[in-house]
């Protein structure tokens, strides 16, 4: 069944590629952690976020480091080992889960639902789609800006259509609506602006940040990863100062490296990988597959407890 799924996926992929006018012979599939690692092996020191003059390009042969690819949808973690100046080997296959940046977006939606009510919020998304998209874009900016030492309250524009719809459907002033929620002391309305306590923002980041840190700890407990020298953070969600702080605080003994444009690291690395696909000398399969085989049962040779209940065939 797994083989059929892979074959079906591969056929569908090549079919879509054909529709795009790309020949199979001209296509190379690059794995995201490998592409990110490839790019950062060539990043100069002065383009890193950290002030310390350290990059993975300086690591000698045999050095192991972790790639933490924090994207919008998923968190993917793998470990590479430097082979020589231009090649790497995979030590731990890519692991992770669906707790990327969109979990913060989902938490923000739940926050608005609690303020307005689920039905009112869903109505706002449908009737005032443009205002909802503007609110999403502004929140995306705040996600990348908020830090541990940010101002006590975060200021955001709140669409008038959202406030008007809440007051119309709930038959209350919006300030009174907020007073009925658990955010009464944490949210303040000023004309068309909403001031949200940074405690609320920390809460929005809590679940994905905690799961990411826990999973990194799990990988670091592997025998193969005992001597890791650094954690390389890439992907759009890695631009979040809160996630960066959580990783650095949880792993003070590890050097955390962040390129200046973590969201485009995979794309840039994929271009490099296309020119040198042999740079990865060894990979670890996440799954292995086998087939069950049997042989004729022979009473004089095989233990009776090993005999299968199906006819005269027993396990090999």
What's a quick, concise take on this entry?
By secondary structure, the protein is an alpha/beta fold.
Task: Report on the architecture of this protein.
The structure is a single chain. It is built from ten helices and eleven strands. It is α/β, with parallel strands linked by helices and 316 residues long. A six-stranded mixed beta sheet has the order 8-7-1-2-3-9, sandwiched between helices. Strands 4-6-5 form a three-stranded antiparallel beta sheet. Helix 3 runs antiparallel to helix 8 (198-220) and helix 4 packs across helix 5.
Keywords:
11 strands; disordered N terminus; 3-stranded antiparallel beta sheet; 10 helices; alpha/beta; 6-stranded mixed beta sheet; about 325 residues; disordered C terminus
How many E strands? 11
Give me the Rg, rounded. Answer: 26 Å
Distance between the termini: 22 Å
Biggest beta sheet attributes: 6 strands, mixed
* Arithmetic mean of pLDDT: 82
Q: Order of strands across the biggest sheet?
A: 8-7-1-2-3-9
- Basic shape: globular
Figure out the total of helices.
10
Low-confidence stretches: 1-9, 311-316
Roughly what fraction of the amino acids lie in strands?
15-25%
Classification by helices and strands: alpha/beta
